[in-house]
Amino acid sequence: MKLAMLLGSAIAVLSASIAHAQAPVTVGPNGEPATPVAELQLSDAQIAQLKDGNYTAAFAWHELYDWSSAVAQGAKDEFERLGIAVVAETTAGFDSAVQQSNVETVMALNPSILISLPVDPAAGASTYAAAVEGGAKLVFVDNAAEGFVHGTDYVTTVSADLVGIGNKTAEAMNAAIGGQGKIGYIFHDADFHVTNLRDATFKWNIENQYTGIEIVAEAGMADPARIDDIASAMLLQNPDLDALYVPWAEPADAVLSVLRQQGLDDVKIITIDLNEPVALDMINGGNTAVLIADEAYNIGVYAARAGAAALLGEAVDPFLVVDALIVTADNIEAGWQQSLHQDPPASLLRAK
Fold first, then answer.
1. By the 8 A CB rule, do 258 and 205 touch?
2. Within this chain, do residues 300 and 314 fall inside the same structural domain, yes or no?
3. Which of 67, 107, 274, 346 could serve as 134's disulfide partner, Cβ 3.0–4.6 Å?
């Protein structure tokens, strides 16, 4: 495990260095070209065939929170539309051993489709052995298990336009600080394709497109639980920072607490994903300037649709992507609906 963590850190650093050489392009975890999800459609005749098939589906999630719950709901709604019964849903708490156990437990029910976001892609062969042996149509979200062959071991990976997200975070950062200033860059220091590419794209844009902004401090975040210490140290060493980039919303919430404790009302935060505390801070004119989100609900819809298409013998492209959007205080309701397919929490609506 220690060796895997070291290798993951090295890969993340290498990914970031590659992004300096040329503008990043959205690709899948194995370099697959991206295909917009809208290209995957099912005819009325195919839907009727699925409804007559008595097919079932299951989920083996990494962890359930706002984003992944929206993905799950999108998949459940699509399965219901296609007449496919969901027989199990598990969450691993970001523990790869638990995820493997969950997959083995779920496969005892013989689901026709299994949707999962791998906790540890390097452990994929063991994590998903039961699914491959059981013949389930395996659909990945965000990351694919290493060593698996598209079209043979798994159907596809469904994710977001990762470079589009990175581009929008840089655009939002530029707007938040008026095109000039010093920022801190906190990146995800692990072998995780989604965050690695988003982070690298943000950095490439700042260094190549928004040259009035200078990254004066960088720190890797391997364990989100340590983000308080990372942010505190960065702010202590760089008291003149204008803004911070944080790779997703849950650690950004902890960074927000650090800024409040230190009385740093003017330091802006740009982060990714929708989260009630940071969104509330944004609406109230706090440190959070903008949130970047993907269409999480649609990731689930098309993951379910991809699995269903595979049951019918249809070929599915290896990497399907949804769009990204910028969410501000002004479009919070529309943004929440587009991303999560639900109304914002009541606290956000009261604050507007």
1. no
2. yes
3. 107
Distance CA 129, CA 282 (A): 44
Convert the pLDDT of each residue in 60-93 to its tens digit.
Answer: 999 988 889 999 999 999 999 999 999 999 999 9
Q: Return the biggest CA–CA distance within the chain.
A: 64
Strand partners, 140: 116, 157
Residue 17 within a domain: no
Nearest to 318 by CA among 167, 143, 127: 143
Residue 1's pLDDT band (cuts 50, 70, 90) = very low
- Measured CA to CA, the distance from residue 265 to residue 286 in angstroms comes to 7
Domain boundaries, position 57: 22-160+296-322
pTM, whole model, 2 decimals?
A: 0.86
Residue 7 is predicted with a pLDDT of 38
CB atoms within 10 A of CB 99: 27
Q: CB neighbours of 176 closer than 8 A, spacing ≥ 6?
A: 243, 268, 270, 289, 290
Q: Is the pLDDT of residue 3 over 50?
A: no
Q: Is the dihedral of CA 165, 331, 248, 94 positive or negative?
A: negative
Classify residue 285 as exposed, middle or buried by CB count within 10 Å of its CB (0-12, 13-18, 19+). exposed
Residues 197 and 339 in one domain: yes
For residues 143 and 23, what is the distance between their CA atoms, to the nearest angstrom? 22
Identify the CA nearest to 297 among candidates 34, 69, 58, 63: 69
Tokens of 209: 């497109």
346 in a structural domain? yes
**SS3 assignment, position 162:** helix
48 shares a domain with 185: no
Pairing relationship of beta strands 137-141 and 113-116 according to DSSP bridges:
parallel
Q: Which amino acid is at 131?
A: A
Residues 140 and 195 in one domain: no
What pLDDT digit, counting tens, does each position of 144-187 carry? 999 999 999 999 999 999 999 999 999 999 999 999 999 999 99
